[in-house]
Design goal:
The chain has 310 residues and is α+β, with helices and mostly antiparallel strands. The protein folds into two domains: 119 residues, Tetratricopeptide repeat domain (Serine Threonine Protein Phosphatase 5, Tetratricopeptide repeat), CATH 1.25.40.10; 162 residues, SMI1/KNR4-like (3-Layer(aba) Sandwich), CATH 3.40.1580.10. It has 13 helices and nine strands. Helix 2 packs antiparallel against helix 3, helix 3 packs antiparallel against helix 4 and helix 3 runs parallel beside helix 6. The protein is elongated. This is Knr4/Smi1-like domain-containing protein.
Length: 310
C-alpha cells in the first residue's frame, strides 16, 4: 500500500509539473530498491528538467525490462534527440513505433530527426526540407509563404523553443488555463516560436505611438525552456502580472515598446473557444484594440516594413 501511495504521489507531482520534487523523492530511495516503474518516473522527470544525460543513464539501467515497452523507447529516444544523438534517437523512436504504431508524437520526432540529419548532410537543401515539413502540417494559411516566414537570426533564438509534443502542449494549456488555437499549435509544431520577417500589423486607428500599425518583436513558442516562451520567465504570466494587463487570455507576442503586447482574447469565446487577437496599448492605460478574428487571420495580416505606409 505504501508503494501505491508513492506512485500516486509521483503522478500528482508530474501533473503539477513538480519535476524537481519527483527527482528528489525518488533519489532518496536507494538505487537497489528502485524498480522499473520508479526508475521510469525518475528518467521522465529528468527529461522534463532537461537533464538528458542523467535521464539516459537511468533508462539504461532498466533497458532489459524496457525492451517491450514503447514508453521506455520513446522517453529514451527523446533524451537522445535533445542530446543531438540523432541516430540513437531514431533507433529508439522506430522501436517505439513498432510497439505502438501510429503514435503522433513518435512520428513527429522521427520526422524531425529525418530533417535534422538531412540538413547536416545536405545543408543546401534547407528550403526543400522546410517545404516538406509544411506539407505534413494542416496549417497552411492562404496568402502566407510559410517557407520564408521566419527570420533566422541570433536574436530569434530568444523565442525559438524546442520541438513540442502533445503532452507538453496539454501541460502548457493546463498552466495557462486556456485552450490554444489549433492554427497556433500547428504552426508551433513546425517552428516553435521566433521572429517573423513581417512584423507589422495595420490597426486602422492611431495607437499611443502615433502610428496606424503596430510592430511585434517576436512570437512566443509553446514551452518553458526559453524566457520568451508562453510559460517562460518572460512569457505570458510575467507580462500580465508585471504590466497589469486585463485577465482576458494569453500573451503571444511582445513588442519593441516595453509593455505593449499582442494577446489571444478569450472573452467572446470562453477559455476553450477560438479567441480573437488583440493589441494591448500600455501607454493608453492598457487600451485593448482588436486586430483579427483569430490567430490565422492575424498571421495572414502581418506585413513587412516596406509594405506598410509610414
Amino acid at each position: 500500500m505504501m508503494r501505491d501511495d508513492l506512485i500516486a504521489k509521483l503522478d500528482e507531482l508530474h501533473e503539477a509539473d513538480e519535476f524537481e520534487e519527483i527527482v528528489n523523492t525518488i533519489m532518496e530511495i536507494p538505487a537497489e530498491d528502485r524498480d522499473y516503474e520508479l526508475t521510469s518516473h525518475l528518467g521522465r522527470a529528468m527529461n522534463n528538467l532537461e537533464r538528458y544525460e542523467e535521464a539516459v543513464e537511468q533508462f539504461l539501467t532498466i533497458a532489459e525490462e524496457g525492451q517491450d515497452d514503447p514508453l521506455w523507447h520513446y522517453r529514451t529516444g527523446l533524451a537522445y534527440y535533445y542530446l543531438e544523438r540523432y541516430e540513437d534517437a531514431r533507433k529508439e523512436f522506430q522501436m517505439a513505433d513498432r510497439l505502438d504504431p501510429g503514435d503522433e508524437d513518435t512520428l513527429e520526432f522521427l520526422e524531425w530527426i529525418a530533417s535534422k540529419t538531412a540538413e547536416e548532410s545536405t545543408p543546401e537543401s534547407h528550403e526543400e526540407l522546410e517545404a516538406e515539413s509544411e506539407s505534413h502540417s494542416s496549417y497552411s494559411p492562404q496568402n502566407t509563404d510559410m517557407n520564408n516566414f521566419w527570420e533566422d537570426s541570433e536574436q530569434a533564438k530568444e523565442y525559438v523553443s524546442k520541438p513540442v509534443t502533445d503532452e507538453q502542449i496539454s501541460s502548457v494549456e493546463e498552466q495557462l488555463v486556456f485552450k490554444l488555437p489549433a492554427s497556433y499549435i500547428n504552426m508551433m509544431k513546425i517552428h516553435n516560436g521566433g521572429i517573423p520577417h513581417a512584423t507589422r500589423y495595420p490597426v486602422g486607428q492611431p495607437t499611443s505611438h502615433g502610428k496606424d500599425y503596430i510592430v511585434i518583436s517576436g512570437i512566443f513558442g509553446i514551452g518553458r525552456d526559453k524566457p520568451k516562451s508562453l510559460c517562460g520567465k518572460l512569457g505570458s504570466r510575467h507580462m500580465i502580472e508585471n504590466y497589469n494587463y486585463p485577465e482576458i487570455g494569453v500573451v503571444i507576442c511582445d513588442c519593441p515598446s516595453a509593455g505593449d503586447a499582442v494577446m489571444l482574447d478569450y472573452r467572446p469565446s470562453g477559455n476553450d473557444g477560438e479567441p480573437e487577437v488583440v493589441y494591448v496599448d500600455r501607454e493608453s492605460n492598457n487600451k485593448i484594440i482588436k486586430l483579427a478574428d483569430n490567430f490565422e487571420a492575424f498571421i495572414q495580416g502581418l506585413m513587412k516594413a516596406e509594405n506598410t505606409e509610414e
